[in-house]
Amino acid sequence: MAGGVVPIVGVSTLEQLEEAVGATELTLEDELRARMDAPC
């Protein structure tokens, strides 16, 4: 949810919902984020 981007997720089970909500606590290191944002 970096940069004000909030993803829309669809889930089928409570477990999927819990995993998606838990992902909001994830913090990526700047280097990893830069690699993910870089063009292929």
UniProtKB/TrEMBL annotation:
<dbReference type="InterPro" id="IPR036812">
    <property type="entry name" value="NAD(P)_OxRdtase_dom_sf"/>
</dbReference>
<protein>
    <recommendedName>
        <fullName>Aldo/keto reductase</fullName>
    </recommendedName>
</protein>
